[in-house]
Amino acid sequence: MDLWFSEKHTPDVKLSIRVNKQLFCSESDYQRIDIFDSNEFGRILSLDGNIMLTERDAFIYNEMIVHVPMAVHPHIEKVLVIGAGDGGVVKELTRYERLKHIDLVEMDPMVVDACRQYLPGNTCQLDDRRVCIHYENALKFIRYCENEYDLIIVDSNDPYGPSEGLFTKEFYGNCYKALREDGIMVNQQGSPFYKQDADAMQRSHQRIVATFPISRVYQAHIPTYAAGYWLFGFASKKYHPLDHLDADGWNKLQLRTKYYTTNLHKGAFYLPAFLEEMLEAVEQ
Fold first, then answer.
1. For the sheet containing 42-47, what is the strand order?
2. Judging by DSSP bridges, how do beta strands 78-83 and 149-155 pair with one another?
3. Of 86, 108, 150, 155, which residue is the catalytic one?
4. Is position 29 annotated as part of the catalytic site?
5. Helices marked H in the chain — which ranges?
6. How far is 161 from 60, CA to CA, in rounded Å?
7. How many other C-beta atoms are found inside a 10 Å radius of the C-beta of residue 82?
8. What is the DSSP letter of 17?
9. Predicted confidence (pLDDT) per residue in 136-161, tens digit
10. Model pTM?
11. Distance of alpha carbon 118 from its chain centroid, rounded?
């Protein structure tokens, strides 16, 4: 008998992946957590029925949310990561020797425990001496931070349910306050393709534009995410993602990547016409 995992993207569209078996299934205080094994995409982490990562394409998301700001800001030493309990973003960050401290704020310890057991390739750097894990609500955590971080990475779920508060104007204002005078915030902005996702993306972008003097959107193509097309937000107090890109400096680090390059970095900010129109509509 075939076993399939299906994620509904709209009432009329879903993505289905044949899975070999279900490795983990449990309800935490916050969400349902599932981990499956598949032939095509390897192990799959799902929260409340939505794919968070697969072993096959997680590198795209992790590299694009980490290396873009790291190639722009020359002096990042202290980072706050919100969400990302699977460990992938932290793993990518720890490749930078210049980083001195990484705070990871994850509200659900069961996500971390499950990923430690079934996705050890992701979580292998969570015990790095520079990493401090805080199991608490990120909204409360960041309210008490001021002028503390060079970079904030918001690796949240979609803006529904437990993660809805991470897309509000209040939250972005707290991120601004928590950043140092030249700090950068990057966040996942979802997909602009289906209407519900596009509306949420526009609301988020409008709030970020109202908070940060520099705000841009960039793109990546991730097969298992909605429409295979995903957006990230780049918000900064000082640095422009293209004007201040230090391509030579980043390339000298000789970090081996599978998706990100400094040439791709530039291209990721050149957006299709329909998306530019959607962003301009809320920027005004």
1. 3-10, 13-27, 32-38, 42-47, 50-54
2. parallel
3. 155
4. no
5. 58-70, 88-93, 109-118, 120-123, 138-143, 169-178, 195-209, 247-252, 262-268, 273-283
6. 25
7. 26
8. E
9. 999 899 999 999 999 999 997 665 55
10. 0.95
11. 20
